Amino acid sequence: MRLEKCWFCSSTVYPGHGIQFVRNDAKVFRFCRSKCHKNFKMKRNPRKVKWTKAYRRLRGKDMTQDSTFEFERKRNRPERYDRNVTEQTLKAIPLITKIRHERQKTHISDRQKQGKSKQREKDAKEVEQDFHMLPKMLQETKVKVRVTQQQTEDNVMEE
Amino acid sequence: MASRLKFENSCEVGVFSRLTNAYCLVAAGGAENFVSVFEAELAGVIPVVRASIGGTRIVGRLCVGNKNGLLLPHTTTDQELQHLKNSLPDQVVVQRIDERLSALGNCIACNDHVALTNPDLTKETEELISDVLGVEVFRQTIAGNILVGSFCTFSNKGGLVHPRTSVEDLDELSTLLQVPLVAGTVNRGSEVIASGMAVNDWAAFCGSDTTATELSVVESVFRLRDGRPGALGADVRKSLVESCFV
């Protein structure tokens, strides 16, 4: 039994799920559910379909290169069974999964942080342009902030 | 010494077993008397391993190996791969190959020094063969057929090829492989030599249908007879098939 990856969306295909298609050139395509299978039959390219892992990796939305991915690589040259090694591996698997998830989360939040600073600039500009549209109370506080800012700027320039 | 046996009423011994100088693989799940013949001959000398490849019993035709390594097709499951690695001696490198032609036993014939391969194999596979098995690889056809692994079998001492191989081809192959070759049959005239028999440097197993003549040819070309030095004896020469096909 082996947990394979869906050819279209790259999610894991568990036993009892999905369909395998074998083409005439002996290439095997595994699908996790009929959604992916039907998309394949429509000849859609997974790299252009937004919800697939292939698209997200290609566009840099998800983490592509990391040392944690090396652990899950398919190996063609086995090593002799060693009980200690197996024990250590089984203990390490949940730790590695946790680390991988953390790294993926930080990758996404780092990507979104750049958007945050841009958003702040945009907001500041908007406040300046449409200052008169703010309610009276906020206008007063904004003026105070502006004045103090200008004072500090003058002090800096004098120095 | 050559023995005659059957696997579940089939004389194609080379399909269900793979015999090398360092190990022997036999099909798992069959009747015990098939394995016991191998064990009787080989027990203390080399490990006899019951295995399946991709859940099938046709291990002889799917894998290929010599004393240095064993090559398996991509259909081999991870559990089977691990089982083979655990059962075989440490010097044998077990490697799974990604190759479209997955019946490696039909495409590759090898001994400990030289391998003949199907000319359609990819370059990476060829490099892997020379790397894992430690052999020199030649792309050849036998009697116009690309499945060299089925139509010829050779050990370090000698070899048997398809009966319709021309004399020039036979000489050419003989110089390539550096072993004496003979064109012959097994299993009462079956041309598929490697499927009908399993052979290594000191033992051979043929199907029950093999006639006494064929068996004596096998024993002389593979030098299996005890205490008989050197080339084929005069008494065997008459029965050689090469004289029939010009």
UniProtKB/TrEMBL annotation, chain A:
Gene Ontology CC: one annotated term: nucleolus
PROSITE patterns linked to this entry: RIBOSOMAL_L24E
GO biological process: ribosomal large subunit biogenesis
Compartments in which it is found: Nucleus
Family assignment from sequence similarity: Belongs to the eukaryotic ribosomal protein eL24 family.
Compositional bias ranges of the Basic and acidic residues kind: 105-135
Record flagged with keyword Phosphoprotein: no
Name of the protein this chain belongs to: TRASH domain-containing protein
A molecular-function term among this protein's GO annotations: structural constituent of ribosome
Database matches in Pfam families: Ribosomal_L24e
Residue ranges annotated for the TRASH domain, each copy included: 6-44
From TrEMBL, chain B:
Coarse class of the protein's main subcellular location: cytoplasm
Domain of life: Eukaryota
Residue spans crossing the bilayer: none
GO MF terms, alphabetically ordered: ribosomal large subunit binding; translation initiation factor activity
Listed SUPFAM superfamilies: Pentein
Keyword terms of this UniProt record: Cytoplasm, Initiation factor, Nucleus, Protein biosynthesis, Ribosome biogenesis
GO cellular component, one term: nucleus
Protein localization: Cytoplasm; Nucleus, Nucleolus
Residues forming coiled coils: none
Entry keyword annotation includes Chloroplast: no
GO biological process: assembly of large subunit precursor of preribosome; cytosolic ribosome assembly; maturation of 5.8S rRNA; maturation of LSU-rRNA; ribosomal subunit export from nucleus
Family: Belongs to the eIF-6 family.
Protein purpose: Binds to the 60S ribosomal subunit and prevents its association with the 40S ribosomal subunit to form the 80S initiation complex in the cytoplasm. May also be involved in ribosome biogenesis.
Subunit structure: Monomer. Associates with the 60S ribosomal subunit.
PANTHER family for this protein: TRANSLATION INITIATION FACTOR 6
Full protein name: Eukaryotic translation initiation factor 6
